[in-house]
UniProtKB/TrEMBL annotation, chain A:
<comment type="similarity">
    <text>Belongs to the ubiquitin-conjugating enzyme family.</text>
</comment>
<feature type="region of interest" description="Disordered">
    <location>
        <begin position="1"/>
        <end position="30"/>
    </location>
</feature>
<dbReference type="InterPro" id="IPR016135">
    <property type="entry name" value="UBQ-conjugating_enzyme/RWD"/>
</dbReference>
<protein>
    <submittedName>
        <fullName>Ubiquitin-conjugating enzyme E2 C-like</fullName>
    </submittedName>
</protein>
<keyword id="KW-0808">Transferase</keyword>
<dbReference type="InterPro" id="IPR023313">
    <property type="entry name" value="UBQ-conjugating_AS"/>
</dbReference>
<dbReference type="InterPro" id="IPR000608">
    <property type="entry name" value="UBC"/>
</dbReference>
<keyword id="KW-0067">ATP-binding</keyword>
<dbReference type="Pfam" id="PF00179">
    <property type="entry name" value="UQ_con"/>
</dbReference>
Automatic annotation (TrEMBL), chain B:
<keyword id="KW-0472">Membrane</keyword>
<dbReference type="InterPro" id="IPR045103">
    <property type="entry name" value="RNF5/RNF185-like"/>
</dbReference>
<dbReference type="Pfam" id="PF00097">
    <property type="entry name" value="zf-C3HC4"/>
</dbReference>
<keyword id="KW-0862">Zinc</keyword>
<keyword id="KW-0479">Metal-binding</keyword>
<dbReference type="InterPro" id="IPR018957">
    <property type="entry name" value="Znf_C3HC4_RING-type"/>
</dbReference>
<feature type="transmembrane region" description="Helical">
    <location>
        <begin position="167"/>
        <end position="185"/>
    </location>
</feature>
<keyword id="KW-0863">Zinc-finger</keyword>
<protein>
    <recommendedName>
        <fullName>RING-type E3 ubiquitin transferase</fullName>
        <ecNumber>2.3.2.27</ecNumber>
    </recommendedName>
</protein>
Amino acid sequence: MASQNRDPAMPDVRAKPATTISNLNSKESHSVTKRLQQELMALMMCGDKGISAFPDGDNLFKWVGTIHGAQSTVYEGLTYKLSLEFPCAYPYQAPVVKFQTPCFHPNVDQSGNICLDILKEKWAASYDVRSILLSIQSLLGEPNNESPLNVQAADMWIDQTAYRKILHEKYETEVKSRN
Amino acid sequence: MASTSESEGQKEGDDPEDANKSNPSQDGTFECNICLDTAHDAVVSMCGHLFCWPCLHQWLETRPNRQTCPVCKAGISKEKVVPLYGRGNAKQEDPRTKVPPRPQGQRTEPENNGPFQSFNWGGDGGFQMSFGIGAFPFGLFASTVNLGGPRLPGAQPGTPQFEEEQFLSKLFLWVAILFIFWLLVA
């Protein structure tokens, strides 16, 4: 019996069955597509004023959104286009949202990157394109000047009249010149 | 560019193929807050928000350090969700018992205090045994009894766990002896 003690062929009763890593990639991507289609439907049905979004071409994972500056803010009358790129792990991961139209704003940098908590650490799976665009729309009128990406804009924000003048001048030169 | 009317663009745009599969309930009362579809294997959080169990499970897996409700950011946990059972569903099993789809395979929990920890007794007691009927050329029946094998640092003498291990060790020794005896007789 003792000679059997160290039988290397003896199965180890403690060994746990190997966890099977199932490949669910196709199913995952299907569920992401389904959710994005649901969002598109909802966006088209609700008809929110001031925001809209639509897939960029055939790719459902890349959308173009449009935000109109909210009334009674300095951004009133200005229209901004944004790009939304959805990761495969959407909605468990936030989409990458960037301003395509140059935007003079304390929380938007030169390349259009947006500093917004719900797009980073405060992201939740229940947010959708609509809530993102509405949040960005309200961010335009209510910037967070504590942690600015555009320091010049943050410093100028106090003087709304001057800010509005600069903002519209920049918009005219940067946006209109593109068309 | 910025002045193009997007609302026109939307109406003229090609509808996705699945667009005709519109949701029957426009109010969205029983839709999962994550997949936005009718909740299947539905669970409801203590804060009252409805999810598909696979969706919520994946959300909790994505944020192991910050277990919050995706809707209201209240603290939630896997244990504190209520499964919802509708009428007419024959198999009313807890949706949480199903293994939900996960992208990165299974994540082992750092502290495992589950009820299956006692499965370790074989090794900790220094006693391993296996019976088998094999096709290996050297034996039709194989029986291995392992006494005093490589001991892992087991329970301290005197503790209830030590007593239990001793008991199990003796019990299985007797089972092994009986089995060998039976093999000899038969």
